[in-house]
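I have been asked to look over a protein record a colleague put together. This is what I was given:
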Amino acid sequence: MPWEEIADGSLKPVVVLETADGKPLVRQGPIQGPYAARQDFPDELIDAVLTIEDRRFYEHSGIDLRGIFRALYKNVEAGEVVQGGSTITQQLIKIMYLERDRTWKRKIQEAVIAFWLEHKLGKDEILTRYLNNIYLGAGATGMPAAARIYFDKEVQELELGEAAMLAGIIRAPSQLNPFNHPQGARQQAKLVLDMMARAGKITVAQAEAANDAFAEFSPTKPTARSGSWFSDWVMQEARELAGPYRGTITVRTTMIPRLQILAEKVVAEALDKHGANAGASQAALVAMTPEGAIVAMVGGRDYGKSSFNRAASAMRQPGSAFKLFVYYAALKAGLTPFDSVDDAPIEINGWRPENYGGGYRGRVSIAEAFARSLNAATVALAMEVGIDNVVAAARELGIDAKLNEIPSLALGASEVNLLDLRAT
């Protein structure tokens, strides 16, 4: 591991998304909150973590020999592993810099890096990195993310009992996850409070009061956040914008929560009302401003059941919607809406496009052919201006998908996604 990467702190940036009005856009699945500075962590949380994880953190030099021997004695006495001897510095190295294999080589690397970190970074920086990167269950990496997921709070707003619970689940976040094992999490919080009282960090009365207030705590998973398809999609571009930057990057998006909720409701109602008759179990929607800002995106019926984004990733034939590019290409070629085109039977290599409902209108203006969405006239116009020019027009207006330069392209035979089509 290059020293410069360790000195930089995080090996990748943390991208935090916001809605158009500056509120957090919390994604589904694993998240990491914005990096918090040392002063943002409340004293109660610092004391709770140090009490349960590394009481001599500000005294040792990265390796705590006294703690190792104490843990060894406790484990032998109990006949099982009940305590670990790793310091917070060592834990930080394990979660960020080294593989988790149990070889002598890794142990030596860990010791060397621990002493180096203590010398180069100092205690407060090591503790800050640890609190920002420790995994705490339910997909939450770092105390800021855990505070948001478990308590819907900023980390600096945590109360004593909440801080004790977060500190208590560090050693076994899966087994002590408050969502899956609330009783175990409460018991662990009580253990931390009792240890803090014995260590003189808080009074016995404070421990009892916090434990009483927290005794009935039962966290409720936050309801599925709207805009999950949007946040998944925009995160890809946000990470590209972040590039090599290390640290927290806040990205203000264009999504408007009120419109996103309305869009999801519209899609659900449309599927309930028309889905069966249309043979459709899914639908997608993209809403944009005239300037091209996406204010709502729905990728299906239920994100919880299918996170596949049909608005950005599903490829479908656009049909008559693609005719726009044919007429745009005609205008670019110098034709006007008042010029005429034949709406008559046409055959190209055995292919005979027909108008909807049958029948033809003969010689019509380009404006009428467009207004009536006449298939035969559109194909004739496309052949006149050139399919390659139709493709160029589509590219100019934002279509990035592969387009086959064949006559049926004029009627939307090549597949595109909804996002590209809406962006035009």
About this structure: The first helix runs from residue 3 to 8. The beta strands are 14-18, 31-32, 140-141, 248-252, 285-288, 294-298, 340-343, 362-365. The mean pLDDT is 85.
